Amino acid sequence: MQEALVSSIPSPPASWQSFPIGPLTIHLYALLILAGIIVAAWWTHARLTKRGGEPGIVLDVVLWTVPLGIIGARAYHVVTHPHDYFATGDNLWNVFAIWDGGNAIFGSLIGGAVGLWLACITPKHKLRFWSFADALVPGLLLAQAVGRLGNYVNNELFGLPTRLPWGLEIPSTNKAYPAGLPDGTVFHPLFLYEIIWNVLGIVVLLAIERRFKPRWGMFFGMYLIWYGAGRSWLESIRIDPSEFGFAGIPSNVWAAFAAVVLGIVIIAVQHHRHPGAEPSVYRRGFEWTPNADAKTEATDAAGETPQNDVVHSEEPVQGDAEATSHTGS
Question: 147-182: string of b/e by CB count within 10 Å (b at 16+)?
């Protein structure tokens, strides 16, 4: 018989998961995801404008990245957990029920990256893809930490049984509760481990940034290494790993390994391509300055034909390692 634990982390009651407002049902998981998006956008805005980005441009980019990030997150989860949605008797509409949980960060990163790339190549923006990715790093980690609270509310994302005093209590009625374990078994709180890992990552990566000022996507590469390393361990002790794997290793662990490798490749390639300082978060010839907007407003008021409010550099910017053949992101 299992001995009583001195302490443990209780799971929230099911009543925490949603609440009604008039005819609407508000899901706390969705609100936490939204809160994470807001804090990430706010922090990225502060970092990007400090480097010369136009105020408000982050909101324009969010319109591309968030929808595609959500689609990617859900699609990745459904693909790696097909028996949760396509077994006999399952309601296929549950594939779209993102408020019930089941959104994979790796899918979100892929979808968000596609959205960011599309936003950066639009004639309106002309941002450097990697510059925006670098500015996003701490906000992204904070958003992920906030979102993990939604997993706690939904009684999901827990690991193997443990005797540690911070074990997470999970009701035996939970569909992910392992068969054969007695009531009262507690589990590793993976949601809490990831929150701690993400917050620690913010501290460590910002310290590295202050010291070495990595740019050209190298800072984002460091994020991939940090996050992938942590997730590779968390996924290895997860109680409900993805249904696919190779060589006995779940696909999400392989995805975490891939994130680490990709981060290393990004740092190596970008360090070779761009040894100099990053001159602007915009592509060459599309730099934005406050004076340009002021001049445009003045010419409009005077009834003159407004000029392009984008500053075009006649001379190469010192330290800009992007030659004409490397004007991409």
Answer: bbbbbbbbbbbbbebbeeeebbbbeeeeeebeeeee
Q: How far is CA 296 from the centre of its chain?
A: 36
**CA 230 – CA 251 distance, rounded (Å):** 15
Q: What is the pLDDT of residues 248-260, one digit of tens each?
A: 788 889 999 999 9
148 marked as binding residue? yes
The Cβ of residue 90 has, within 10 Å, a number of other Cβ atoms equal to 13
| Domain annotation covers residue 184 | yes
Specify the number of domains making up the chain.
1
**Domain span holding position 174:** 25-283
Q: Does any domain span residue 320?
A: no
DSSP class of residue 6?
S
Residue 13: inside a domain, yes or no?
no
8 A C-beta contact, residue 177 and residue 17? no
Per-residue model confidence as pLDDT tens digits over 12-52:
988 888 888 989 888 898 899 999 999 999 999 999 999 88
- Does the residue 101 lie in any domain? yes
Taking the C-alpha atoms of residue 307 and residue 300, their distance in angstroms, rounded to an integer, is 9
Q: Which residue has the tokens 């078994």?
A: 185
